[in-house]
Design brief:
By secondary structure, the chain is an alpha/beta fold. Helix content is about 45%, strand content about 20%.
């Protein structure tokens, strides 16, 4: 089998003959008509000369018949004799087809090859040599597979190609090949068998195109689709499943558990005071903390367990296929321990704790929504207890109302007089005598009892209710102080917390001055506490408002000092009177050298700046002794007294003021 290639662009002889015949047709046809007209005129003249009668219509018919007969005869004589088949065994339209096919195959931009029945190359075009780097002499006689395929070529594709060749059927495929210079590229190949008249195989013709760029674009699109799909079902910060991805997996786990009659546990985790971390340290630190928490949770459970981030600081763990030999409480405790304590971040150590709620199927619910709802109730029950704990779901929790219901109830809590103030005494570190007391807000819910502020204060801040609630706290606390003074009590300083929203109000100084005047309380007996986060959120506004409050004679204190990122220069400009060391630093000051150094440095800083230093969260005698040794001015905490209703607090203060020193026995006793 041979495909002829003339090696140039000169037309073949058959093509030249066809062109000459077309030119002759353009010349001879008008000449034939002219000759016919001349003959007709000659006949007419002859008739006139001889006097013979003639009919013009007959003469015209004779003229047309003569011209048509002449033209048809000439055209039929001009038709060439065509061969029945081409050298390739294909039907041809005229004699030039084989040569024109050779030219097309030679100069096309596609690689064209012809193989013999043994699949060895017998002809290649110039595009093949440019593409592969092999010359025609190097390629002819070789098998394409031996020439181009290599170890990275997909063996499944190669097997499919060979199967089609053995069955003598055409195939189109994409395949990774390697050229003479070692370059790899992708080929889109269309291979077809060449069959003889009796169906025998005469060879194969292959048309190939380099599709490397198309494959790269296609792979990039696939990678983008995978990324989009991943982001749709995963949290980009932690890499864990998000809420959407989690629900589908939870439903699958529960379906398998129902079929196998096994248990499945859902553990809901919520970080305590994470909003405080975001507000004081910034969102970058908050994100790093979330990523570390996600890593710890993932590492503390099994590979088959599901871990997801539902949003914010809320995580969920699903433990499938619980059997009798597995202790669920030990698993929960192990996860809980990983989230309790200090977490080391780049340039920062953060103390964390979490509230965890657990629900188990089928006892606590057979579907995902019910299990999550019950785990959420258990988690909030842990928060009600002050956080830093875990609770298993109990049916009695079902009467608890979720966050949205709390928001609704909080709107009318002030009107229904459900909010109450408890007071925690503050004593001098050396003498133990009371020097003041702090007003702490509580919510006495009619059905749920006393609700801790850590649960409803964030809701009040998010909904804007904190402004009116803060005003009520200030008015009530000042009225209680006035009652204490009227009852003959010593002038003690009353400490009240201000929220960031209150501090941002331009009318704050005037409103506080009006409250003091209405209650008849001297301004120097009122101490306003603001957190570092509140002061640093809008430092210029805070500086301006605090200066106006200071001008009224009110004492100013920075609360939770040591947990934020206050600038010392900014601290000086705020012109505060007191620093209050956060309880997280006080907690281990007597047993941990790092915390002891932080407390010591904070006290020294406050004294150097001429500020009063107050420590909160004192629960052990050793802490008191350490703080007294470091000359901290005053302390408050459970070791002195828990927050109490106003009547109990005033009774405690009277008794404490009657003795020269508050005596505490036992190194670990809590009052």
């Amino acid at each position: 089998m041979v495909l002829r290639d003339q090696g140039g662009d000169r037309p073949d002889s058959a093509g030249e003959l066809s062109g000459r015949r077309l030119a002759l047709r353009r010349l001879v046809l008008p000449a034939t008509w002219l000759l016919s007209i001349l003959v007709a005129i000659g006949l007419a003249a002859y008739g006139l000369a001889t006097g013979a009668p003639w009919n013009p219509v007959q003469l015209l018919e004779l003229l047309l018949l003569f011209a048509a007969t002449w033209t048809v005869t000439w055209l039929m004589a001009a038709q060439p004799r065509l061969p029945k088949t081409s050298p390739l065994g294909l039907d041809m339209a005229d004699g030039a087809t084989a040569d024109w096919l050779a030219l097309v195959a030679r100069h096309t931009g596609y690689s064209v090859t012809i193989n013999n029945p043994e699949r060895r190359l017998v002809w290649v075009n110039e595009s093949f040599t440019r593409l592969t780097g092999y010359t025609a002499e190097e390629a002819i006689g070789q098998k394409t597979s031996a020439l181009l395929y290599f170890e990275r070529t997909d063996p499944g594709t190669v097997a499919r190609i060979r199967e089609s060749f053995d069955a003598l059927r055409g195939i189109r495929f994409e395949i990774l090949v390697r050229g003479k210079d070692g370059r790899e590229w992708w080929l889109d190949t269309d291979a077809r068998p060449l069959l003889g008249a009796r169906g025998e195989l005469r060879g194969w013709i292959c048309i190939q195109a380099d599709i490397t760029e198309q494959v790269k674009i296609r792979e990039e699109l696939r990678r983008s689709e995978r990324e989009i799909s991943f982001l749709a079902y995963h949290d980009p910060l932690t890499g864990l499943a998000n809420r959407l991805g989690f629900r589908g997996r939870l439903d699958q786990v529960l379906a398998r558990a129902n079929e196998a009659n096994t248990r499945c546990a859902v553990m809901l985790i919520d970080l305590d005071r994470f909003k405080h971390v975001n507000d004081t340290l910034g969102h970058d630190i908050g994100d790093k903390l979330l990523a570390e928490v996600a890593r710890r949770v993932r590492a503390s459970v099994g590979e088959s367990d599901i871990v997801a981030r539902l949003g914010g600081d809320e995580f969920v763990v699903v433990i499938p296929d619980l059997d009798a030999s597995m202790s669920l409480e030990s698993i929960v405790a192990h996860v809980f321990d990983q989230l309790h304590g200090n977490i080391n971040l780049p340039g920062r150590v953060i103390y964390t704790s979490a509230s965890v709620g657990v629900a188990v199927s089928p006892k606590d619910g057979a579907d995902g929504s019910t299990l999550l709802q019950h785990a959420d109730l258990a988690m909030y029950a842990a928060k009600y207890q002050g956080g830093d704990s875990y609770r298993m779901f109990d049916p009695s929790m079902a009467c608890s109302v979720d966050r949205l219901a709390l928001e609704v109830d909080l709107r009318s809590a002030v009107e229904r007089q459900e909010l109450v103030l408890h007071y925690q005494p503050r004593v001098d570190t050396i003498s133990g005598r009371p020097v003041g007391f702090e007003a702490l807000l509580r919510w006495n819910h009619p059905t749920r009892g006393l609700i801790a502020p850590a649960l409803f204060i964030p809701i009040a801040e998010e909904t804007g209710r904190i402004d009116s609630i803060g005003q009520w706290v200030l008015e009530t606390a000042c009225a209680d102080l006035r009652n204490w003074l009227d009852a003959g009590g010593e002038p003690l300083r009353l400490s009240v917390n201000l929220s960031p929203l209150q501090l941002a109000r331009d009318t704050l100084p005037e409103r506080i001055a009006a409250v003091l005047a209405a209650a008849g309380v001297p301004a120097h007996l009122l101490e306003l506490e603001i957190t570092e986060s509140a002061a640093m959120r809008s430092p210029e506004i805070a500086e301006r408002h605090l200066a106006r409050l200071k001008a009224l004679g009110i004492t100013l204190s920075i609360d939770d000092f040591g947990t934020g990122h206050s600038s010392l220069a900014r601290l000086k400009l705020l012109n505060v009177d007191c620093l209050k060391i956060d309880g997280t630093l006080v907690k281990d000051c007597a047993v941990d050298a790092y915390d002891a150094a932080l407390c010591r440095a904070t006290i020294a800083l406050g004294r150097a700046l001429g500020l009063q230093v107050i420590a909160e969260g004192v629960e052990m005698q050793e802490q008191w002794q350490f703080l007294a040794q470091e000359q901290c001015n005053s302390i408050q905490g459970y070791l002195i007294a828990r927050p109490m209703p106003v009547s109990e607090a005033f009774a405690f203060l009277r008794n404490a003021l009657e003795v020269p020193r508050l005596r505490v026995t036992g190194s670990n006793r809590k009052l």
